[in-house]
Amino acid sequence: MSSILGPKQFQIPRIFPRPMSHSGIWYWLGTVDHKKIGTMYGIVSFFWFIMGGIEALLIRVQLSQAENDIISPELYNQLFTMHGTTMVFLVVMPLSAAFFNWLIPLQIGARDVAFPRLNALSLWVFIFGSILMNISWFTGEAPNGGWFGYPPNSTIQFNPGNGMTFWVLGLNVLGVASIAAGLNFIVTIINMRAPGMTMMRMPVFTWMTFITSILIVLALPILGVAGIQMTGDRVYGTNFFNSEAGGDPIFWQHIFWLFGHPEVYILILPAMGIVSEILPTFARKPLFGYTFIVFSGAIIGFMGWFVWSHHMFTVGLGPAANTAFTLSTMLIAIPTGVKIFNWLATLWGGSIKFTTAMLFSIGFIAMFTIGGLSGVTHAVSPSDAQQQDTYYVVAHFHYVLFGGAIFAIFGGLYFWWPKFTGYMLNERLGILNFIIMMIGFNLQFAPMHWLGLDGMPRRIYTYAENMGWELSNLAATVGGFLIAFSVLIFIINVFISRRNKKLASGDPWDARTLEWSISSPPPHYNFVNIPQVEHIDDWWYKKYPELLEGSPKQTKSAKATVEDTSNVDESKIHLPDLSYYPLFVGIGLSIAALGVIYSYALVTIGLILVFWGCIGWSTEPVNEPHEKHH
What is the rounded distance in angstroms from the CA atom of residue 35 to the CA atom of residue 519? Predict the structure, then answer.
């Protein structure tokens, strides 16, 4: 095979120029460096965060007054569908993936991930899958059947046009990206830990990434099966969800939520990992109950598979099923509560420094606790029967996913920004960012609790004047614009800090884990010497060996310092070479998916690109010599 399809015949650099540095468009298109892939994940997903926020603001403007007609019912349905889809699949998941890519090799003492090209593939499939889904705006056929895609609203009989076909094909392409990334991080964490780093010495963020990756690999194929079935119904005339032909629309709900509730923990477990790194750093004491937090995360991941039908209490599953899922939903609150009490115990008695990252982490605990408590009320099926289709549910999941995941992600950005870029963000602007976001968030979503309890249905584009909901909706709209202003402050902070460049040391926060033992930003090979790990928070105890129990007092000269890279011969450090093939496979997948809607010729072109990219990828040398870039 290699003699016929040898690597020289498939060298894409014949077409594209060879990059001569670690920057420039050709280097970024072909990079397999986990840090640059993490950066691109972050930039693209933050762009979609802005787009999803604009969609949310348009929804809030429409609902700010009774009987508004600023946008049409059809456009409202499109905005509502794409806002939810964007925030879940194009924002929180890939923003978490940005942290995974940047931090996991650094935290476990590795120079790269296990499969660098597979890592690049996950990035490009995500980018082009997100473009595929949003092309629908330009064809006038944006998805309009809700981010949950319930039949019969999403079937071709009741929803003609290509909008929901774009939606389901986009989700299937994005699923390929998620599964590729999940497999990569599972193998990386199992096989590439530094010597001495046992599983119970890993940072909590690495643990949460590991559990999340397992959930991704198990849950996304379920959504993929459902997506194939819906594509069959919409494009090829199958009847999986057509009740008139013997199909079952409730079957979609079961499959979707069997994926969907593990998905909730795919979104929130990385946030829990971020907070578990920030709190002990700025409380200047070890994380309280490390073992309990790790096992609580694992229990949450396991139990998340047994609660999906609490999304379906009003479907009519019967008392036995409702009782079983009521009990399982109540039980899953226990490991979550364990984590919250351990975080509070970490703060208790600590020497707390209220940095921006610390404030966002404390805000996460408070907002996530509120969201969790309102979630427990949904566990009671008679109560949920009254709340299920009201704005009370909207309040609940925004407290969990925005007050939880987004607050933690902003905390993580302020915490690891100096490691990512080599310079600090402005703390004054950061604290202003937090204060305005906290006020705006609560002003937007707290009124939704009583709007829901007062009977305001969710998924409506307007309401009558005599309902008494105008003031609360107006407050929610003002809160939404305050959140947007807080995000603008963050963007301003990034540009100001980039211009002023207050340089960061390798360990500006006096932190605890291995990524802080190297320079900021790290060299492309990460570690000159792979570290030898002896403890949880090994970097902390290398700096302060006198803090180890039973250790004699040490002098300052015994403390570790950030790794010196000034005299490193990079030519002796092997790193994988560039590859453009993942880019072409990602493009090919999206073209093939687009062809399902428009033309089998596009399907053919896309599959040829995928096949060609895979053949070229497979014939690239396994142990390529490292070329020192100038």
Answer: 14
Distance CA 30, CA 13 (A): 10
Residue range of the domain that includes 151: 31-193+203-236
Note the pLDDT of residue 474. Answer: 97
Single out the residue of 172, 14, 144, 40 nearest to residue 83, CA to CA. Answer: 144
Rounded Cα–Cα distance for residues 93 and 49 (Å) = 11
Chunked mean pLDDT (size 10), the chain, 630 residues: 41 49 81 95 98 97 95 96 97 97 96 94 97 95 94 94 96 97 97 96 98 98 97 95 93 96 96 98 96 97 95 93 94 95 96 97 97 92 92 96 97 97 96 98 97 95 94 98 98 95 92 94 90 93 83 54 68 80 96 95 96 90 50
DSSP calls for 337-379: HHHHHHHHHHHTT------HHHHHHHHHHHHHHHHHHHHHHHH
Whole-angstrom distance, CA of residue 435 vs CA of residue 437 = 6
DSSP 427-439: HHHHHHHHHHHHH
CATH number of residue 141's parent domain: 1.20.210.10
pLDDT value, residue 316: 92
Give the span between the Cα atoms of 397 and 408, in whole angstroms. 15
pLDDT of residue 3: 38
In a domain, 157, yes or no: yes
The first and second tokens of residue 165, run together, are 């076909």
How far from 395 is each of 76, 140, 222, 486, CA to CA, in Å?
Answer: 19, 30, 27, 20
Please check whether residue 150 lies inside any domain of the structure. yes
Look up the pTM and report it.
0.94
Nearest to 151 by CA among 233, 72, 238: 233
Would you state the pLDDT for residue 623? 54
* Coil/strand/helix, residue 457: strand
Alpha-carbon distance 627 to 573, whole Å? 10
3-state secondary structure of 551: coil
In degrees, rounded to 5, the angle at the alpha carbon of residue 109 between the alpha carbons of residues 108 and 110 is: 100
Whole-angstrom CA distances from 152 to 84, 160, 180, 277, 607 are: 19, 11, 32, 45, 31
For residues 417 and 520, what is the distance between their CA atoms, to the nearest angstrom? 9
Q: Would you list the DSSP string of 573-616?
A: S--PPP-SHHHHHHHHHHHHHHHHHH-HHHHHHHHHHHHHHHHH
Count how many domains the chain has: 1
Tell me if 339 sits within 8 A of 272, measured CB to CB.
yes
- Residue 373 to residues 330, 586, 596, 598: CA-CA distances in angstroms? 11, 41, 44, 47
Q: Is residue 77 part of a domain?
A: yes
pLDDT for 19 equals 53
Contact present, 166 and 138 (Cβ < 8 Å): no
What is the Cα–Cα distance from 206 to 177, expressed in whole angstroms? 20
Q: Which residues pair with 503 in a beta bridge?
A: 423
Q: Is residue 89 part of a domain?
A: yes
